[in-house]
Amino acid sequence: MNILLYVGAIGFLLTGLINSKTSYASISPSSIFYDRNEEEVKNYYSSLTNGIKGDNLLSALQPILKNNQKSLSLKDVASGNWNYFLLIDRDYDKDPLAETEISSGVWKSDNVVCRPLYEESFTFVKSASPGDKVNREHVFPKSHGFQDSSSYAPFAGTDLQNLHMGEAANNQQGHGDYPYGNVANKDNASKIKSVISGNVTGYTGLNTSGIKVYEPMDRDKGDIARSLFYMAARYHTYDSTVSNSPALKLVNSPKDISGSVYASETQNNPCEYGILSDLLKWNIEDPVDDYEIHRNNLVFNACQYNRNPFIDYPSWADIAFGNSSSGIDKSLAPRVIGGSENPPVLVKEETPTAVVDSETFVISNLIKSSDYYLVLSDGTKIKVKSSAEDGKVILKDYRDSLLNKTIVGIIKIGDGITTTDSDTQEINIVYKEEPIELEKEVIPAAIYNKTNNTFINLVPSAKYILKFSDGTTLEANSDASGVISLNTYISSLRGKTLVGLVKAGDLVSTADSDVQIFDITYPSDFDPNNENKIDNTNLILISVSSAVFVCLVVGVIVTLVIRKKKIKK
């Protein structure tokens, strides 16, 4: 009896290990199902320099992620081959490993309960045409930087840190090539129904910046964000030494592309995707769970032998892509199953009540030197910063974005590390500017001097406007003595009648002066500077010289004739 109880207890313990969420940490390190411990994960990134951040961190991660990465082919991930996806996208909570799978290292390929993107659950049955319900989803679309004639070309096209099993309708009709982001108004968005459950599991619509985006179900947001962070690190710069290795970049406003972009086209222009600010939020709002950690380990152990650093260290996302002032801290533990690091618990910003002055258009009583959103009546948000001295926001500083618009709310932006954005405080203020009544210039009366064609008695070194009867105008500047010599503008005066003179205002404190009336007509051949005058003196000299020359010639001819007659006699 004691022996039977002992055997039963052992069996119970084994069953518990196999079926529990953390059981895979107890599997042999030589098994493909083994989950790496903290020390093993830290060693993978041992070459990184402590405190590194931003582009320097991405540049340092790229060779680590490239090193030992297996080049997967089309037949490995497509052409009806679901083998890898049935390993890495399996829901091990609902469909735990059998002892035979653990001992053999061979996982089942039919009747597998999976956790695809865009749906809660899907049971993969070979005979039920699963390809009608699920697709192989490139989270970072292959059209954005690594399009290839075969569609699945290593390295980027077959990278399993980016390729996931995904529900078909949301993949094709929802995500497509649109960037991931938060839809501003889901009521007006396209609702994507899953072909698996019939439930709406995604939305396609405009974000607050007017960019068309795809928003998945909340459970998938962090997983998607971290897949995209991986792609922007692994393919940070173009790599000509291996196939299909583009330069990829995450931004808030990705450039629209027509058609598809090939890796070679990204050599000097990284292909952009997003929406980065939303992805950074999703990384926090949907933290790493055991399913994602286990998937990362399976890709590393059994598929392509590299890791996603943003699953191992979720905080590195803000350090690499956000506004973190500090770099990585290598002493911190990575995320592992059964590990010591817990997802950050964020709290909403608690802020003092903003005070709005509708006359001066100043918002006060804000946290000093902090970022806020002003929420407009059309749903858009304008980012502003409070003063470091008094915690005020002067709306005039943002007039180009706010003029004649209604502000209905204000939000304190969270730091994304310990705090999220505050609740919206409702306000109501229309930012308008009253038209400024400019005083007209008071100037002395101009005097026209017909003899030398000048205006005198003007404001010195000032701009004036000459008005003509045909409606045209001409700018002219007075000199330091308050004189405008109109002969300077002869080509513009010919054939015209000058009917008025105006002193130009500075349009800040003064408007143009009243028009002083004149009636001065300039003929089309007006030539006060004698530009076309012929020099009569020279003409006279030429004429005299010509006459003398003619007389001399005649005299010579007469003399010759007389001599000839004398010779004949």
> Pairing-aware structural class of the strands and helices?
alpha+beta
CA radius of gyration is 41 Å
Q: Can you list the strand order of the major beta sheet?
A: 14-13-16-18
Head-to-tail CA distance between termini: 182 Å
Total DSSP E strands: 27
Tally of distinct domains: 3
Relative strand content: 15-25%
Outline: elongated
- Mean pLDDT, all residues: 86
Low-pLDDT runs of 5+ residues are 1-25, 534-544
Describe the overall structure.
Helices cover 27% and strands 19% of the residues. It has 569 residues and is α+β, with helices and mostly antiparallel strands. The chain folds into three domains: 2-321, no CATH class; 347-430; 439-521, Immunoglobulin-like (Sandwich), CATH 2.60.40. It has a four-stranded antiparallel sheet, with no helix packed on it. A hairpin with a 4-residue loop joins β22 and β23. α8 packs across α9. The chain is elongated and about 140 Å long.
